[in-house]
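FIELD: query
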Amino acid sequence: MTVQDVRAFNRFYTGLIGALDYGRHLYAPYTLTESRVLYELAQVPHLDAVELRTRLDLDAGYLSRILNKFEDAGLIERGPSASDPRRRRVRLTARGREAAGLLDERARDTVGALLDTVAPADRPRLAEAMRTIRDILGPSAGGQRTGPGEAVLREPHPGDLGWIVQRNAALYATEYGWNADYEGLVARIVADFAEDHDPHLERVWIAEEDGRPVGCVMCVRDEAPGTARLRLLLVEPEARGHGIGDRLVRAVIDFARGAGYRELVLWTNDVLTGARRIYQRHGFTLVTEKPHRSFGKDLLGQDWRLHLHTPSE
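FIELD: result
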């Protein structure tokens, strides 16, 4: 490979990205950098301004002007950081999440239109080529892993639903000693979704890092009217501590609110301390507790609930 090979690919890729945004409507009414800021803020409940600047490699003054603009427009709110009072915490408002969601929807539609031009038989080869470029030019080229910025939340691909069943069964057996009854429960939940679900009201997210799944969560309709249920939150052990669980839960909350649900509920067990901390951070409250014998263990089941405020409330 020569320098000219890299430059030729760069010209091609730059031209392709420009063609995707023909007419410059993809990021409107924001600039590309402003859109990147909105995207990063949408991935986690909140970020310190310093963390945001580091992730995006932005000049402090430039980022400050963007955040001032966003705050004036009601897209963000700022306050003291819980971990360091000297820092400023930044998080999206409901209006900000709506703006970020619109940008994400446009990007999905645009890239989807591009993929429609690729023959199905060529898509695995294209994905593998992209992973190869990231693997070779990422860390070895001086790049940094940015934790939650590295993970992508996406819809499930063929085989991912089976992965959800397999990884839930294996992880809970290893970490908590649960037997095959739990695998049967997960398999039924996943099968029910695969066979009959409304994509406007129910959804699955896969967290992908370095081209492989490292987490998942589901949002499905509950029996109670106006209520959605969060199910099967999982993050692989090596991917924990990067905020992926928070991002998955936030994705469910935003989706449920956008779908018009009034409440979001979930059932878990008290031994799942890491997951419970995530739920608490996002405003879920414990409603009831009940001991039960399941999956070969004596457990304390817990029901948690989150009221989904609408913008008018």
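FIELD: remark
The chain is about 45% helix and 20% strand.
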